[in-house]
Specification:
The complex is a heterodimer of chains A (163) and B (184).
Chain A: H1 2-10, H2 13-18, H3 21-50, H4 61-92, H5 99-130, H6 135-162
Helix pairs in contact in A: 1-6, 3-4, 3-5, 3-6, 4-5, 5-6
Chain B: H1 7-36, H2 42-72, H3 78-111, H4 118-149, H5 154-180
Helix pairs in contact in B: 1-5, 2-3, 2-4, 2-5, 3-4, 4-5
The chains are: A mainly alpha (163), B mainly alpha (184).
Chain lengths: 163, 184
């Protein structure tokens, strides 16, 4: 999956050369979505084992609390990342093409992946748990690779569409 | 209790770790965009970097977890640590070799570039990951030990800090490797 992600970046090298700020923040974006998803999987697994979430695909207060907690965390982290990333870019003299549009693209990308991850991982955790498997062991390596692949994919896709 | 955490508690505990992680990853981004981007062979080099970052995560995570476990259950000794280190190095060399091999295949089938000779595809990931682990292993062992001695749970403390250190060191060691090998 890492090599697929590399292939994606490599075959869109002109975007990386024209929008170098992307290279600056891609590792942090990958890490952000990976970290938040890992926290989600660990929490879901614990809830399933302890019984605070029933192994059914349905809404619950506990799930909503986790969703809003992680959603606010990802928004705060994203704001910090954009602030620090742009500040670093300005200090290092890295050209920032269409700064506001790039911010919107990054926010849409991360939120879209967060929603996809939340739904996929919730369904995946219940599916695995019902079959007697530990969701941590299967979903964490899977989500890390998925995040590494989806982040550059959606970023490049939105850049091609909007810029 | 994790099962009773309110959203406020989730934010309070997760957000500071994320800030540390973001700072480390931005440093990795600086190395990428300032030091590696100007290389003529950038198009080929960028192919390997995400795979090396994933590999680092998949090796370092279990290493940290095993060391934490040994410390917590009182099983930590020079012998268990050396076994753990050797396992991590062996696995990293084998996987890095395959990253190089698959990069060659991808280049031959998709990119068809002749900027780099095949020996670089194999040596860059191997040397790079060995250098990275040589920074990561002493750092994570030291952090694990200090956290444990101070009565903290190493599992909660060491991972976010090491993610930041490791992501930066992976990209920086990659840069050092291509300089050492004289990659164009």
């Amino acid at each position: 999956m890492g090599l697929i992600s590399g292939t994606l970046l490599s075959s869109n090298e002109e975007i990386l050369y024209t929008i170098p700020i992307m290279l600056l923040i891609i590792p942090a974006l990958n890490s952000l979505i990976g970290d938040i998803s890992t926290v989600l999987v660990s929490r879901l697994t614990t809830h399933l084992y302890v019984g605070t979430i029933s192994p059914k695909i349905q809404k619950s207060e506990r799930l909503k609390e986790d969703f809003y907690g992680l959603f606010i965390t990802i928004l705060l982290s994203l704001a910090s990342l954009l602030f620090l990333g742009y500040l670093t870019g300005i200090v290092l003299g890295i050209e920032i093409v269409n700064p506001f549009l790039m911010i919107i693209i990054i926010i849409i990308t991360i939120l879209l992946i967060f929603f996809v991850m939340f739904i996929t991982l919730f369904i995946g955790a219940i599916f695995l748990f019902k079959r007697g498997m530990d969701p941590n062991n299967f979903l964490i390596p899977f989500l890390t690779s998925l995040a590494d692949f989806l982040t550059p994919l959606f970023l490049i896709l939105f850049i091609i569409i909007f810029i | 209790m994790e099962t009773q955490d309110s959203k406020r508690k989730i934010i309070k505990e997760t957000f500071p770790s994320e800030i540390i992680s973001i700072i480390g990853d931005l440093l990795a981004g600086i190395v990428l965009s300032v030091l590696i981007l100007p290389f003529d062979s950038f198009i080929v080099l960028i192919l390997m970097i995400p795979a090396l970052l994933s590999l680092r995560g998949n090796l370092s995570g279990p290493f940290i977890a095993r060391t934490s476990r040994d410390l917590v259950i009182g099983n930590f000794s020079k012998r268990t640590w050396i076994e753990n280190v050797l396992a991590s190095y062996t696995l990293s060399i084998i996987t890095a070799f395959f990253i190089g091999l698959f990069s060659i295949v991808l280049n031959l089938t998709i990119f068809k570039l002749t900027i780099l000779s095949f020996q670089y595809y194999l040596t860059i990931p191997i040397i790079s990951i060995i250098l990275t682990l040589s920074i990561s292993i002493p750092c994570s062992t030291g952090l694990n030990y200090v956290a444990f001695k101070r009565g903290l749970n190493p599992n909660n403390v060491v991972n976010p800090v090491m993610t930041a250190i490791d992501d930066f060191s992976t990209v920086f060691c990659f840069f050092l490797t291509i300089i050492m090998l004289g990659v164009p």
